[in-house]
Amino acid sequence: MSVNQTTVADDESTGSGQAVPAPVDALPPEPKASAKPAERPDMVGKALSLLVLLGDEPRGASAAEISRRAELPFSTTYRLLGSLARDGFVDYEPEGRRYHLGLRIFQLGQRVSNHHGFAGTSLPILRRVTERTGEATILSVRDGLHHLTVSKVDGPQIFRVTSDPGHLGSLSTTAVGKALVAFAEDAERERLLSELPLEALTGRSITDRDAFRKEIEEVRRRGYAVMDEENEAGMRAVAVPLLNSQGHAFASLATAVPVFRLSLEELEAHVPVLQEAAAELADRLPQRG
Fold first, then answer.
1. Which residues does 71 contact at the CB level (< 8 Å), separation at least 6?
2. Helix axes 186-195, 175-182, angle to 10 degrees
3. Tens digit of pLDDT for each residue in 28-55?
4. Do 102 and 82 form a contact (C-beta atoms < 8 A)?
C-alpha cells in the first residue's frame, strides 16, 4: 500500500463495467470562492465522515462502497476522496481500486496519543504488567458506543492478540468495554444499559438486555470484568477500570489470552497486578470524564 497521485473511478460510476483512470488533477474542481460560507463547513463535515467510515474498513473500500455507506452522491464522494488523497489523509490502492486511511492520519493519531500520555507514560507500565503476566496487556478508552484501543504490549508467546492501537471494539462483548460501562458516571451508565447495541459476535455474546444489566452489576460488585469467548472464539480477557477522582472510569486495562493457555480462574489471578497498574496509570494520565 502506498500513497499515489492518481485515483480510479469505480465500475458503478461509469455503468460500462470498465474502470476509468482519472488523474487527481482531473477531478471535479473545488467549490468556487463565491460559494455560500455555510457550504464549506458542510463539505468539511462530509470529508471527516468519509475518514470515519474508512476507519471501520481495515481492508479498505471502493469509492462506490463509501458513497453508499455515507449516503452521498458518487461525484461528491469521489471529489472528496481525491482531495483527501492529495493531502495524505487517504491512500489509494490502484490494484484493488480501494481507499484506505493514509499515513497522515497515523501521524496525527500518534500526536494525540503522545498528548494524552498513552505512549510515553503508559507503555512502560503496560510492559511491566506483561513481564509479570507473560500475556498481552491492553489499554482502552470509550469512544461513543465502542471502546478504542490506545496502547498495547504483546506477550512473549507466539500467539498474538490482534486488538492493536486504533482498534474500535464492542463495549458489550469485551472485558475492557464492560469495565468502561460498569464504572461510567451513573446517568451515562444507565443510558448505555438502555441504548447500547448488544452484538452477537459469538455464540456466547450477551444479547439480552436484562442479562447484560446483571453482568454490569456483577462487574461493579467485584471490581473487574471478564470476557470468556464472547468477543472472539478462543480468546478470554480480564479488565479493570482506571478511575478518576469522582470514581468514574476514564479508561480500562486488560490482560488477554487464548483459552488454551489460561483458564478463567488462572486469568482472574492477574487482577491484583492489573489493579496496581491501573492505580498508577490513573495517577499519571490525563483524566477524561
1. none
2. 130
3. 444 444 444 444 457 888 888 888 888 7
4. no
